[in-house]
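Design review, sub-item: ligand-bound model
Attendees: FS, YL, KQ
YL presented the inputs for the magnesium ion complex:
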Amino acid sequence: MASSTVMLELFELMKRVARTDASILIRGETGTGKELVARALHTLSPRSEGPFQAVNCATLTPELLASELFGHVRGAFTGAIRDRQGLFSLAHGGTLFLDEVAELPLDLQARLLRVLQERTFVPVGGTDPKNVDVRILAATHRSLRREVEARRFRADLLYRIRVVPLYLPSLAEREGDVEALAWHFVDELNQQGFRHVERFSAAARNALLAHDWPGNVRELRNVLEYGFAVGQGPLFDVDDLTPELRGEPPPQSPHDLPKVASPGVAERRRLLEALDSSGGHRGKAAELLGMSRTTLWRKLREYRLHSHTDL
Ligand SMILES: Nc1ncnc2c1ncn2[C@@H]1O[C@H](COP(=O)(O)OP(=O)(O)OP(=O)(O)O)[C@@H](O)[C@H]1O
Ligand SMILES: [Mg+2]
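KQ shared the predicted structure:
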């Protein structure tokens, strides 16, 4: 979903490059839609009937990642009680998406390179090579060139996985897209039936357009979701925006509050402490406080504490 020239050009390019088996490296800041683009490339490709498998290279230890990618044979290591297929097998005939590829440890980079060159791989602890017919898509928020310079990424692997580089612009670079995407998400959220938004007030619209969106499309979606949760009625006004978007200073930390407190201040402090210990997670904070999520929402709004939650 987009209307900016950069994005429309990107969609055209995606259609063309999706047809081949060329490896594509998608680069973009957090929340710009890298995963969405990877899935779209698979759907647009001749492999669309085949499987799409994804792995986040940043979230697994090197050992687990190796077994996740290549699978293992029974007895390969303690706990390997039976053979297990890896993602290369599971993605056979389809697409494998390597997310956060810059985080791939160097020894796995070497193994991956071998797979891409020889089109075969050996499961962890195994001896028989298996054939691979997999198209590789990868994504990163880093400059891989800089990672190569810092010797954290192999240059030969870079050339293999970046036959076609796709750059996803940040939302701030996408002229006209804040508004187009805002309406896209409003339509989507309207369908959920909790609230039906028909228009934005001029002030709300201006605030959305003036914001610099460091969290990109994901942040925009979250801001609208927030507005749907806390506000009501067909007019989406500035009150429905997060304090940050309204240009208000962030709420005080519990330590700034006076020691002897009125009931309201004490409750506010309890809310803050619960949010602190739950790491900003609303559901957990509500549980800690023994209140429903809805009550917590109302109170957070009352005390203007929304920005403390993980929206
Ligand atoms: N053009 C778009 N139209 C509609 N929704 C979008 C668009 N781009 C991104 N999104 C939505 O924004 C959110 C973030 O997208 P995605 O997960 O693909 O980002 P990402 O670049 O992979 O982020 P990260 O680096 O943090 O993993 C998702 O909910 C996705 O559906
Ligand atoms: Mg992602």
